[in-house]
Amino acid sequence: MTLVKRLVLVALGLAAYPSTRLPAQVSFHVALGARYSSTLVHDSVVTPFDLRPALAPALLFSVRDELRPGWSADATLDVSPSGLRRHEGSGSFGAGSFTAVAFTVGLQRHFAAGVSARVGVGGMRYAAGQTGVFREGSGGIFPLGTVATTYALPLPFARKYQLEVEARYDIHQFITPALRTEGFTTSRPVHRAAILVRMGWGGGTP
Amino acid sequence: MRRAAALLAAIAAMAACKDPAIPDRAGVYAFADTVIIGVDTTVYLFHWPANRLPVRFWADSRSNMGFLVARAVQAWEDQFLYSEFRGILVSDSTDADVIVTWRDSVPPDVPPDTVPAANSCGGGTNYVYDTALLEPVHVELVVFAGVGATAGQVQACLRRIAIHEVGHALGLGFPSNRHSAFDEDIMFGSPIVNYPSRFDRRTVEVLYHAQPTVQPPPP
Prior knowledge:
Oligomer: heterodimer
Distance between the termini of chain A: 37 Å
Number of domains of chain B: 1
Largest sheet of chain B: 5 strands, mixed
Largest sheet of chain A: 8 strands, antiparallel, barrel
CATH class of chain B: Alpha Beta
Mean pLDDT of chain A: 88
Number of domains of chain A: 1
Distance between the termini of chain B: 63 Å
CATH topology of chain B: Collagenase (Catalytic Domain)
Low-confidence stretches of chain B: none
Number of strands of chain A: 10
Radius of gyration of chain B: 21 Å
Structural class of chain A: mainly beta
Structural class of chain B: alpha/beta
Number of strands of chain B: 5
Strand content of chain A: over 45%
Shape of chain A: elongated
CATH superfamily of chain B: Collagenase (Catalytic Domain)
Helix content of chain A: 10-25%
Strand order of the largest sheet of chain B: 2-1-3-5-4
CATH architecture of chain B: 3-Layer(aba) Sandwich
CATH topology of chain A: Porin
């Protein structure tokens, strides 16, 4: 079983665990949305070009614990399968695919009017076949920093399912062994932004 | 609050890192018939464009030609960082972009010898073209008779030659099958190495980002 499948199964197991058997302040959340990622590699062979993930789905599983009124901590598993595209002057071409898997822990501050902000850190791994920039491996686990802001929809239906809209940003440094072999000596900051709809159960309403 | 501020500071520090430098790719050998100033104004340059990938290879069904071609295609795919080339084997030669056959005798399929192999095999790659290829690329592998090589030495030789000839089928040395002048390269005239070198890699990378003057045949 691949790492990605294992992590997804763990997350699904956590999310499916009956909330009645856990302390009241613990809640579970699943979020689904779309993610944009900045360039992974900027290179030039005859002409310059970029290697960039395509717009991709993002699926997040979180366990959140209320620390004290207005504050909570969470652990989040973030899975995002994506195609890779090579963008150059003459067009855009497929260049393989990967699944980005990130695990973060974060602190969340709940403000008035259903708005909250989160900051977190963790690690991220690219799961990919051994081709292209991943042909000598994925580069291991990259440290990741993330910030997010969430808005809880003020509707009865939304409150029942703890529906929230979330804007999430994260950053990590990217380089792979194949890129080092090619002559790249330093990693590149990769920015990712996602818009998500989050649903939760258990715990108290934030 | 202090913890949140520290996390934010760490994220800001990560974002402040500058872009990495693009590596130097010096060391490319001549991969096409280039302009000879004052003599020739034509550059014949061919590679398989992205919209024609994967390139379809048909391998002679006799002996282990399928294995040799698949191994050679994989060896070249492994040279590319950005999926500029991909190849597949097809079962019908009428669907093929590249046809690989035996010339004359067919060698037995035995394990390759591990000792240095005699120069016991060769190959050829032929294109029919004007501004486009007019028919599939034809590649032949040939076993040299009378050199006293064992069947295992012939197989070791064929592994190298298959990579070399598939390199020509990718466009390296098009159209007159120019070669690298250096014997550490698989595209050396009589290859003695078993795998593409870093100069082969750099050369094929440059070829696949150069503007071709000869187009592939119609699909």
